[in-house]
Amino acid sequence: MDDRRTEIIVANVEFAADSIARLREKQGVSFAEYRDDPDTRDIVERQFQKLIEACLDIARTVLRGHEGSVPETNADCMRELGNRGILSESLAAEMASAAGFRNVLTHQYGRQLNHQTVHDALHDLGRFEGFLRSIRDHLDAVGALD
Questions:
Q1: 51, 16 in Cβ contact below 8 A?
Q2: 3-141 maps to which CATH number?
Q3: What is the pLDDT of residues 92-146, one digit of tens each?
Q4: Residues 127/133/135/141 CA torsion (nearest 10 deg)
């Protein structure tokens, strides 16, 4: 993997870690507060969208660094990381699901969006932390962080 790709991945990992921290700050918000406060909903929904997009950018950049092409769908990019052993199969499936969650956040809003689902996701940030750990481990294993 070349230095430029590594720099892009590291920057996106740092951005994603910051997004996780910002979402963690909202974990104390009750569902009722979340549901009734449009500003809080906007912050959480946008942070999730940006977090997932950063993870997808990381996945595509890692895959391009190995063979230059990436699968057509976001979910398939995550599955391919699992196929290559960069992510565990279970984490790859969870991250493929996160790609679908990003689509929901992007294309559904207002009353269409299930606010309980988004609020529940605030307490399921472990998959994103696991993703970032796996990417760091991969970069270290291929000598990209030397």
A1: yes
A2: 1.20.120.580
A3: 999 999 999 998 888 876 667 889 999 999 999 999 999 999 999 999 998 888 7
A4: -150
Q: Which residue has the tokens 């920057």?
A: 11
Burial (0-12, 13-18, 19+ Cβ within 10 Å), 47: buried
What are the domain boundaries of the chain?
A: 3-141
This prediction's pTM: 0.93
Q: Which residues contact 30 (CB under 8 A, 6 or more apart)?
A: none
Distances (CA, A) of 112 to 15, 31, 37, 53, 116: 29, 17, 16, 21, 12
DSSP for 36-97, please give it.
H-HHHHHHHHHHHHHHHHHHHHHHHHHHHHHHS---SSHHHHHHHHHHTTSS-HHHHHHHHH
